[in-house]
Design goal:
This is Serine carboxypeptidase-like 18. GO terms for molecular function: acyltransferase activity, transferring groups other than amino-acyl groups; serine-type carboxypeptidase activity. This protein has a domain of 240 residues: Rossmann fold (3-Layer(aba) Sandwich), CATH 3.40.50. The relative contact order is 0.15. Helix 1 crosses helix 2, helix 2 packs parallel to helix 10 and helix 5 packs antiparallel against helix 6. It is built from 13 helices and twelve strands. Strand 11 and strand 12 form a beta hairpin. With 390 residues, it is of the alpha/beta class. The strands form three sheets. It has an eight-stranded mixed sheet. The chain has a two-stranded antiparallel ribbon with strand order 2-3. Strands 5-8 form a two-stranded parallel ribbon.
Length: 390
């Protein structure tokens, strides 16, 4: 009996079996085998969601409208139909996985599967657990931890942080607009971190094609960061390498007619492949999925939740905070985990009856971890699947 992973992610650069040649200098980018592909330890179905993402498409304009709840139901429907069309995989152990915004969708899909099984819907899906990387769970928790994280990483001074902590009463995300002292104290913080690459705080910040107003949303409301949903193009700053060069390579490759023909993309369905399609109609109608985790924690599944510890888009501190809100029992205290004799990060394990949640930080990784530390993340996944301590 094998294992399967159904993966939801806003953009995956390092999980699949192929990778782009980093030395691309024109023409059609070449690809090579990825030595750290997650397909080495599992069969993976990658899903472009919602319709209009990647090479996916809808036959009607209405089909391009979606939401959090609709995404969860649609993906469960897809999975049931796929398994019925491929019955040889029905008995495989299944894990639902996703990163970034997929952190919201993963527990919702997992709960849809669980409830469908309980209702007797066919096929019965052998759900074992779920995996979330650098995931959004609750913006009031995750986004609010950006400033405490920036302080912990020495990006803002003790004085700035303590002043804002008092005046904002610890609420930095969507602060009270009438709290003028809080808004005033947030300004030097914004100034201190505005030129930091929030996807990986140690890497250079590169220009985006269409930057948002208000400096990427880090104004008084600190709403969101463009690292999640904005296109990055090649840019060199004083000769520094920009990660966005790799993203641009994917545009050239995916929009090549011969590539699309080889991939059997239906002609006329995709005008231009884009890394993130911002033209779609999508309603974020579930603000927090903490309650989904609480329900799943009573059903005996396994959960792997990991964070790149240099990600300021969705800092690991927010992930720790919502995990603690589940009131689980600590099964294994915080400790380092190693790859090839070197510390690869830190881990802590929680449990509730037959439910186990393993939290992992990936040292030096950004948003999202496998892109920055593919070797370490493959080792993490392999050990977790094998029930071997990290």
């Amino acid at each position: 009996m094998g294992r399967g992973v159904i993966e939801y992610c806003y953009y995956t650069m390092s999980l699949g079996p192929l990778a782009f040649d980093a030395d691309f200098d024109g023409g059609l980018p070449s690809i090579h085998l990825n030595p750290y592909s997650w397909t080495k330890v599992a069969n993976i179905i990658f899903i472009d969601w919602p319709a209009g993402t990647g090479f996916s498409y809808a036959n009607t304009s209405k089909g391009y409208s979606s939401s959090d709840t609709k995404s969860a139901k649609d993906n469960y429907t897809f999975l049931r139909k796929w398994l019925l069309n491929h019955p040889m995989f029905i008995k495989n152990r299944l894990y639902v996985a996703g990163d970034s915004y997929g952190g919201k969708i993963v527990p919702m899909v997992a709960l849809e599967i669980s409830r469908g099984n309980e209702a007797g819907l066919q096929p019965q899906i052998f759900l074992q657990g779920y995996i979330i990387g650098n995931g959004l769970t609750d913006p009031n928790i995750d986004y609010n931890e950006r400033i405490p994280y920036a302080h912990r990483m020495a990006l803002i001074s003790d004085e700035y942080f303590e002043s804002a902590k008092i005046s904002c009463d610890g609420k930095y995300y969507n602060p009270d607009p009438k709290n003028l002292q809080c808004l005033y104290d947030l300004r030097p913080i914004q100034e201190s971190i505005k030129n930091i690459n929030r996807g990986q705080i140690l890497e250079p910040k590169c220009k985006s094609l269409a930057p948002k107003p208000d400096d990427l949303g880090w104004d008084q409301t600190l709403v969101e960061d463009d690292s999640i949903d904005h296109l990055l193009l090649p840019s060199k700053i004083d000769g520094l390498w920009c990660r966005s060069q790799t993203y641009a390579t994917s545009y050239i490759w995916a929009n090549d007619p011969t590539v699309q023909e080889a991939l059997h993309i239906k002609k006329g369905t995709i005008t231009d492949w884009t890394r993130c399609n911002n033209s779609l109609s999508y309603e974020q109608n579930v603000e927090s999925v903490v309650q989904y985790h609480k329900i799943l924690s009573k059903k005996g599944y396994a959960a792997l939740v990991y964070s790149g510890d240099h990600d300021m888009v969705l800092p690991y501190m927010g992930t720790v905070k919502w995990i603690n809100s589940l009131n689980l029992t600590i099964d294994d205290e915080w400790r380092p985990w190693n790859v090839n004799g070197q510390v690869a990060g830190y881990t802590k394990k929680y449990k509730r009856n037959d439910f186990y949640l393993t939290f992992v930080t990936v040292k030096g990784a950004g948003h999202t971890a496998p892109e920055y530390k593919p070797k370490q993340c493959l080792a993490m996944l392999d050990r977790w699947f094998s029930l071997y301590p990290l």
